[in-house]
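for the recovery benchmark. tokens below, seq after
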């Protein structure tokens, strides 16, 4: 299964007075990981949106294991979990070196410009096939 690793650094503005990363930043880092996962597959979000396809988050979760601190270099590991007609789900791990900081997931709907659900297979058959190949382990990456 295709996985992407993206590096991010904890900025001063991401932390509290004790130098610990604020919990909501993990969802920002998930977004960075997901965006880079798509880009690495040759499917940048910008191109999807230009074609009238949007992926709003409809569910998100995070399980925290350890704290990220100011100036830590983090690795966001992103995997495609599932693909359904109008939904897609991703899994994430955030690590600092070998230390697991958090695990999480997001689920997204495929919608059009008006926010109405669309069947990806019909709206964008190329993307549907590409994502199916990733799930089957044939992405070539």
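predicted aa per position
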């Amino acid at each position: 299964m295709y996985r992407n690793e993206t590096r991010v650094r904890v900025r001063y503005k991401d932390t509290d007075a004790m130098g610990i990363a604020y919990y909501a930043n993990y969802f920002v880092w998930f977004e960075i990981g997901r965006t880079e996962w798509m880009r690495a597959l040759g499917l940048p979000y910008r191109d999807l949106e230009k074609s009238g396809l949007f992926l709003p988050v409809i569910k998100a979760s995070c399980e925290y294991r350890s704290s990220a601190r100011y100036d830590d270099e983090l690795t966001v590991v992103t995997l495609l979990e599932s693909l359904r007609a109008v939904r897609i789900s991703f899994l994430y791990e955030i690590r600092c070196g070998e230390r697991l900081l958090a695990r999480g997931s997001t689920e997204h709907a495929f919608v059009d410009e008006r926010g109405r659900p669309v069947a990806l297979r019909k709206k964008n058959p190329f993307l549907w096939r590409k994502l199916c190949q990733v799930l089957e382990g044939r992405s070539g990456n």
